[in-house]
Amino acid sequence: MPTTIPSPIGWSADQAIRILDQTLLPEEERYLELRTLEELAEAIRSLRVRGAPLIGIAAAMGVVMAAGQRGSRTMGQEGLARVREACSQLGATRPTAVNLRWALNRMARRAEAAVGQGHDLPTALLEEANAIWDEDRRMCDRIGEFGAPLIPRGPTVCTVCNAGALATGGIGTALAPVYVQHRAGGEPHVIVPETRPLLQGSRLTAWELQRAGVPLTLISDSMVASRLRLGDVRAVFVGADRIARNGDVANKIGTYGLALAARAHQIPFYVAAPSSTIDVATPNGAAIPIEERSAEEIMGWRGQRSAPSGVGVWNPAFDVTPAELVTAIVTDRGVVAPKDVARIID
To answer: Fewer CB within 10 Å: N-end or C-end of the chain?
Structure first.
């Protein structure tokens, strides 16, 4: 991770989960210590902790918290019952991001193995959660290494939402190639759409890139097509919350429109995501559950009303970009065509 960007998650001294409250950025950098599953579930639902890889890490840490303290010798069906309940509760918080369910399934399997072998359950689960975190950090590094050569030196690139260090356990997914090239002296410049309605682009990506010393230009979402038409944007890099077997991609709302604009202007459109985001059990984008969020996110901002009461609101958190609009998918296992993405897992 770029050293100027704080880690969005960690363990406190007494094994509470310490998170950077991303709802308060960029005005305030405040950390919260979460000590119950209910606090963690609320933090995930409210986007205090967010980003597909990061909520998977957070959920894994939550299972550790639910199992009890290390050395407590939590055993048998009682311990497994607590783990299963935690997985059920946390798994219901965000339906679209497949990393959440992937991490929870992994924790449940480790719990079953630990109990079956007579091992200390909290210790086993702590090892597994830390392994998930470490693996994500390494996957981010590899995504950066595979993606950086796709960016010509000194170019302008465009992204959407936040798929950087604030959304993962490492340097990010969509921003990882940017950071790798920046460290190598390539001087990339990033166009950052604000990403309504919750402004993850302007609040988080702009803040993160500025902290890392990467040049950026902030634009409103309605400016995307006009900005790409200028001709200096050489590539688009976005993250993903779920990639279906056929290469369709669910990502933050606005990604589909950005993909259409990139195709219209013949700009390569790359999706960057760890292999844990590929869901071979989902055949195509139509089968991806799309989370719909509160109308209040559209009707106002931080207590300030911007729409008349009683209006109808449609607020999907994500959209689906068809595989045919994706130039390639950059993963920790290499760069692949969308039609071949399932081969990484199969």
So the answer is: C
Strand order in the sheet with 318-321: 278-279, 242-244, 249-252, 318-321
**Sign of the CA dihedral running 330, 336, 342, 346:** negative
Same domain, 20 and 134: yes
CA 178/CA 182 separation, integer angstroms: 6
For the beta carbon of residue 90, count every other beta carbon within 10 angstroms: 26
Residue 318 three-state SS:
strand
Gap between the Cα atoms of 75 and 120, Å rounded: 7
Distance separating alpha carbons of residues 79 and 137, to the nearest angstrom? 29
This prediction's pTM? 0.95
Smallest CA-to-CA distance from 15 within 80, 56, 87, 71 is with 71
Does residue 340 share a domain with residue 241?
yes
Which residue range(s) make up the domain with 134?
9-140
Annotated catalytic, 241? yes
Instruction: Spot the catalytic one: 221, 241, 248, 332.
Output: 241
| Cross-sheet strand order for the sheet of 31-34 | 9-11, 17-20, 31-34
pLDDT tens by residue, 80-110: 899 999 999 999 999 999 999 999 999 999 9
Q: CB–CB of 291/46 below 8 Å?
A: no
Determine whether 241 is exposed, middle or buried from the number of CB atoms within 10 Å of its CB (0-12, 13-18, 19+).
buried
